[in-house]
Amino acid sequence: MLGADGKIRCAWAGKDALYLAYHDHEWGKPVYDDNHLFEKICLEGFQAGLSWLTILRKRENFRNSFDGFDFNKIAFYDEEKIDELAKNPGIIRHIGKIRSVVNNAKCARQLVEEKGNLADYFWSFQPPESERFKHVDYATLKLNPITPASIRLSKDLKKRGWSFVGPTTCYAFMQSIGIVNDHIEGCFCR
């Protein structure tokens, strides 16, 4: 898609200013900060069944409501805090997804204890060169939202007790934090 600024972008970025900024400055850029990684995987879980633009519009509310996605704080949320979050109109009030964030915070703490940090763990799932771009149909520019690497990550996270981390969610997470670069050929961000 050719933007009004003369730059070629992935078509999904559309024309919404928030979406364009996300595409241009965040999506696909490598992330190594553990709290930011935790935020990203939680927001991908909240996005399931919704548009990413909905999540972007509520992202600051999510950050404020979930203590900046500090998993060391979230792991200790009690039922009162969960009920408070479920009543918060500034976020997605899906009780299962809210409980998942608390559960995943506990799992993240265990993972950090075992692996040292989340970044090394998540980046260890970067697909080998032989798997890259095999999920792209270049005739239609459509991506298969599930890859062998996202299946591996999903299975391992689930084995560790994480929730709302299916292979599609994991792949979107991998795209968003730069583990894979799915900016289309010609996109100025590629």
From TrEMBL:
UniProt: Zn(2+) binding residues: 10, 23, 183, 187
Superkingdom of origin: Bacteria
UniProt keywords, alphabetically: Glycosidase, Hydrolase, Metal-binding, Zinc
Presence of keyword Metal-binding: yes
InterPro entries the record matches: Adenine_glyco, DNA-3mA_glycosylase, DNA_glycosylase
Pfam families reported for this sequence: Adenine_glyco (PF03352)
EC code: 3.2.2.20
A GO BP annotation: base-excision repair
Example GO molecular function: DNA-3-methyladenine glycosylase activity
Keyword presence, Zinc: yes
PANTHER family: DNA-3-METHYLADENINE GLYCOSYLASE 1 (PTHR30037), DNA-3-METHYLADENINE GLYCOSYLASE I (PTHR30037:SF4)
Protein name stated in the entry: DNA-3-methyladenine glycosylase I
